[in-house]
Amino acid sequence: MYRLSKLRFGFPIGLFFWLLIDGTVSQVFSVQLFRTPSTMVSHLVVLWLVCGAIFEADSALSMPLARWAAVAGAVFDLYYTGIFGLYVFIFPLVIYMTRRLVSWIRPNFLSGLLVYFIDITVVEALGYLASRAMHLNDASGNAFLVNTLGPTLAFNLAMFVILYFPIRWVYNWLK
Amino acid sequence: MQKFSFNRRLVIIIVCLIVSFALMTVSVAIRNKKSTPPLVQQFGNDIVGLVDRVVAIPSNGLSGSVSSISELLNTYQENQQLKKQVSELAQTKVRDQTLAKENKQLKKEVSLNNSLTDYTAVTASVITRTPSSWQNQVVINKGASAGVQKNMPVMSGSGLIGRVAEVNKTNSKVELITDNNDSANRFAVSITTKSGKTVNGVLSGYKAATGQITMNNITTKAKISKGDKVVTSGLGGLTPKGLYVGKVAKTTGDDYGLSTKLYITPATDLSDLNIVTVAVTKS
Hints:
The structure holds two protein chains of two kinds.
Chain A: H1 7-28, H2 30-33, H3 44-59, H4 65-81, H5 87-104, H6 109-133, H7 141-174
Helix pairs in contact in A: 1-3, 1-4, 3-5, 3-6, 3-7, 4-5, 5-6, 6-7
Chain B: H1 2-33, H2 39-72, H3 75-109, E1 120-129, E2 137-140, E3 153-156, E4 159-167, E5 172-176, E6 188-192, E7 198-207, E8 212-218, E9 229-232, E10 244-253, E11 260-266, E12 275-280
Antiparallel strand pairs in B: 1-2, 1-12, 2-5, 3-4, 3-12, 4-5, 6-7, 6-9, 7-8, 8-11, 9-10, 10-11
């Protein structure tokens, strides 16, 4: 029962914690992450959301993930980018996609890695297309693939490998 | 039934797309035209900023202590080098004081209250950085209550790093000059060449591959050479005169061979920012 579990408060707290950690990681390791021309973008909040969807399918517990994803997206838009209306739609889309994918394949560490790969690609690609449309950058498609998508995928998949089991432990503890 | 649900999904996707683009367009328009964001956004950002400080202060402190340990290793060499510089600096500082005093007196004589070079510095620390590769922004811990206004220039170390893009009550966003959007790095600058001529222009972009600022459409006959210093000219807007931007790294002809294009090496490392200074001009 979601309403009676610790997840009811634990999940949003974790969500905001990882949301703020994303910015802190980008600030503290900015020399390593934002080394021109290639940039690695940390998406730990997406990791928390995707893990939520995976463990939800694993334990037959239904959580209001899409709603919280929209809230996290709204905070991300207002606090980090200052342009409202992008991540507020992308984060729920990630939840929707992950739920569809894990309904087809049995979620475990390796399939989770593949699902996360797809999610990060979608997040970055939609972010790129929207910022191109809004004249926020002038990078070409090639530059996006080589300088942003590649390093970002490498960084986030490494983070998935490191944090999957700790996050699963936290979810199990909160359940 | 299957067909109906497919259509409904398509409608939802299209509606979401339209709403998303409408919201983004409105917020970009507000950001470009208004001096402060809407009140709800300001309030929300202030609260998130407060919470973020709780998360950011321990981790920034930790990274500070790690870097101070690594700095400890080459302290001896650095100390020797710095000792030499300090003795020179003391002389420059005294001379600077005398000149500032003289300048003040002379200004009084011609009853000139504020000139383009006058500004007060507001020091702020960086709370967090936008985790995005399209918006090179940092959030600093000073806002409207400390006198920060939109479009004020921000410096770190020895040079210009960007401008204030959004002001809340207790924090504000700084758009770095590495950001390649339409308005991020259009600073009016001037270059004094070796022969003493002044060339005015506007910064036009950032080349990520080499980490250099570009400056287009210069039609002067004056010869600009490598190593010439680029400073803000104080023309237009809130930027005071004389903020150091960087040094000229390369001069080339532009794509059509009609004007000159400059590449400027920025004065500060733009990826490593902890403490920044906002130049507050009296207007």
